[in-house]
Write the structure tokens for this entry.
Amino acid sequence: MNTTTRTSASTSTKKQPMDVYKEVTKRIVMRLAEGDIPWRKPWNAPYKEDVINYKSRKPYNGINRFILMQPGEYMTFNQCREAGGHVLKGAKGHLIVKYGFFVPKENKAKAEQLKSEGKDISHLEVPYLKHDWVYHISQTEGVKTLCEKTDTKPAQNPVDYAEFIIENTCREKGLILNVSGVDCCGYDNANRTITVPNKDQFRTEEEFYNAVFVQIVSATVDDASQKSRSKADEIKEALVIEIGASMLLNAVGLERTEASENTQAKCQEWIAQMNRDVRLVISASSQAEKIAREIVSPLFGESE
């Protein structure tokens, strides 16, 4: 009888597995509620070595760029031990996730057939999400940094970098940039034309380049989108464009600023969307990262 009671109590207090989607969304929503927009953080020279894994030297991708608050090197508990150090007592790990898609076993034959025919297989894929815990190098002892001082050096010519990205992307994607004294921004898919006001119509250079980047990402998203889209698809695309443009702005070393009232309204809108779909911010960040990397890679001479 006593044994049964103890077993029941043990079962009732057993720790429930963490819902990673909810946990990540909660962290992003909390920051948005404070008016802190994670993807607009002014970290310089991303895609080089700003938030990286100590062992692989590769930058963390997607949503990890926003939930790892401090630039620098991160490592798992075991990677720290392998490096000859140890995690400081009481240090709390930082959540990271790996998000992607895979084709289930039962769909592989069909997927191979469609791929051989050059057809889309996304409807056969299902998402996966894995998570781990890492520690910033400042939370360790006995681990020597492998970063050089230039790793987080700001871009020297941010405007030149921005112009390079715009010129290169328009050429590669067959886009036409129309900068004129208009009173709106937009992308015309039929004519492959991006239209934005003159630079002097914006309060800052950053806002001008952000407007151009928004349309460049919008064109990329539009190229990959299906003609018939649901409301949920449109909401996700809008967030992909917002995050992707901010990533491009950060990549060249420019910081985006906005009027506080506009920022607050945007934050409330994103919070509502994310609360409706806890997968939204992870999926959108992953897609935005992929687009931004493709656009930015020629600037740093990277192959991908």
